[in-house]
Design brief:
Layout (H helix, E strand, L loop, with lengths): L5 E7 L5 E4 L2 E7 L5 H12 L3 E3 H11 L2 H11 L6 H11 L8 E5 L5 H12 L8 E6 L2 H9 L1 E3 L6 E3 L26 H24 L3 E5 L4 H18 L1
Parallel strand pairs: 3-5, 3-6, 4-5, 6-9
Antiparallel strand pairs: 1-2, 7-8
Helix pairs in contact: 1-8, 2-3, 2-4
């Protein structure tokens, strides 16, 4: 099926841009700290499509006590990783819901080449389904390190600061509450390096997979939020008309 499908109704975003392209399934990629969550919210405003996070799906299934959730709870209770097959089943059920008809933003899935091949096969088996396109948000390693290790928050009002890019007026204290700012235990250089190594090891094969298929694009993530979002929209539109 051709991927250059367009809807008959324009969708208005918070940035006053229009797009008639049906987004279809979008995989948003990016290293820790690039702002995938922020950009997902921008795409939701543009296209009125859901963000699907495997972490959220897992928690929801466990909380609701579904059959899959109960199996996952037992596995996690043993300190084991939830297998791809179980995650795939949860994703498959979520994709049957009506709000995914014109597209969705995938967060944390497919994380591995096995998951990517499974999803591609599932979409290919549906004549009406568009293929997945992947967009990676790129930010310089040192800039990411500053974003993560410089992050501080107020324990009272939850305001977020960054000692390098958005420092408080008084070093170490919240501008609003005057409370001493805190740093998350995992916002350290050592943890960041490990997360980056894990991300690269898992994601590199997925990136190369979609690059080889002609369904991959990169956008500069070291720009204003609205500019990045516009770049992602443009990349998706380009991929939909060429993939």
């Amino acid at each position: 099926m051709s991927s250059s499908v367009s809807s008959g109704v324009s969708m208005q975003s918070g940035r006053d841009t229009e797009t008639k392209t049906v987004p279809g399934p979008i995989l948003l990629l990016g290293a820790p700290g690039v702002g995938k969550g922020t950009q997902a919210k921008e795409l939701i405003k543009t296209w009125n499509i859901p963000q699907i996070s495997t972490g959220d799906l897992l928690r929801a299934n466990v909380a609701k006590g579904t059959k899959l959730g109960m199996i996952a709870k037992q596995i996690m209770g043993r300190g084991e990783l939830v297998p791809d097959s179980l995650v795939n089943e949860m994703v498959a059920l979520r994709l049957l819901e009506p709000d995914t008809a014109t597209g969705y933003i995938l967060d944390g899935f497919p994380r591995t080449l096995v998951q990517a091949n499974w999803l591609d096969g599932r979409l290919a088996a549906q004549p009406e389904a568009l293929p997945l396109v992947a967009v990676s948000i790129q930010v310089n390693y040192n800039q990411l390190l500053r974003r993560i290790t410089g992050r501080r928050s107020c324990p009272v009002c939850q305001t977020i600061y960054n000692v390098f890019m958005h420092p408080p007026q008084r070093d170490g204290f919240c501008d609003v509450e005057g409370a001493a700012l805190i740093q998350r235990a995992d916002d350290t250089e050592e943890v960041f390096k490990e997360r980056m190594r894990a991300y690269a090891a898992l994601t590199a094969p997925v990136v190369e997979h979609y690059r080889a298929l002609g369904r991959f694009a990169e956008v500069d993530g070291d720009r204003p939020i609205a500019t990045i979002a516009a770049g992602i929209v443009a990349a998706v539109e380009r991929l939909r008309h060429t993939a």
